[in-house]
Amino acid sequence: MKSLPLKPLYVAGVAIPFWLAIALLILGSLYPDYSQFEQSMSVLGAVDAPTHFIAPLINNFPLGLLFILFGVSVYKTFPQSALARVSGLLIVLHGLASFVTGDFSCDAGCSPEDPSTAQQIHHIAGVVMAWSLIVAGGIWAWLGLRLQGFRGLAFFSMVFTLAALVTFPMVVISAKNLVGHGLYERVNTFVSAIWTAIFAVILLRRSA
């Protein structure tokens, strides 16, 4: 049985930030008076949102698939490194959690006083999404210095992991005071998405 070709899976990683940006622009345009800077991405799929049914189909599910495909490629690229394979599994976990956030929508407005079980699951999956990539980036900040040809990735991983760690508490705080929440959430999300794409580009160049 032939092994799965890796280059198309690397391309899936490269596509992630572009898909995310396009999905948010499309969904935001379909949601009257939606603010990309003040409202969370989860609001686009909330039970009362005009984009409730389409949001997972455009955003959560395709992105989840892209992350899973790229995570599998990382796992298969480094058969001799347990840590590298762990990072691949974390990227796969991020993709699976993205599916969960699409399956379990948050409540109306995403900020009820008594959240439903679906919203609680949605929230937990969102936290898993954030920390799975933060940990994966942290692994490569250390591992990239020890594997030949990956020092550049180590540098990018240090920068992007630090940026993700700094912005994550801002996301939490802004969710409580409702000021700039959408902006902080997007910065945190795109930091991890861009790190993934850079990782994928490096693997593509090495495979060439």
Textual characterization of the structure:
This protein has 6 helices and no strands. With 208 residues, it is mainly α. α4 packs antiparallel against α5 (151-177), α4 crosses α6 (181-207) and α5 packs antiparallel against α6. The two termini are 23 Å apart.
Q: How are the SSEs ordered, and which strands pair?
A:
Blueprint (H helix, E strand, L loop, with lengths): L6 H24 L24 H23 L4 H22 L13 H27 L7 H27 L3 H27 L1
Helix pairs in contact: 1-2, 1-6, 2-3, 3-4, 4-5, 4-6, 5-6
Short structural summary:
The protein is mainly alpha-helical and 208 residues long. Helices cover 72% and strands 0% of the residues.
Q: How many individual helices? A: 6
Shape: globular
In helices, the fraction of residues equals over 70%
Rg, nearest Å: 17 Å
SSE sequence, one letter per element: HHHHHH
For the residues shown, what is the average pLDDT?
A: 93
Strand percentage lies at under 5%
The total count of strands amounts to 0
Largest sheet: none
Question: Structural class from helices and strands?
Answer: mainly alpha
Count of the separate structural domains? 1
Poorly predicted spans: none
Distance between the termini: 23 Å
Structural features:
208 residues; mainly alpha; 0% strand
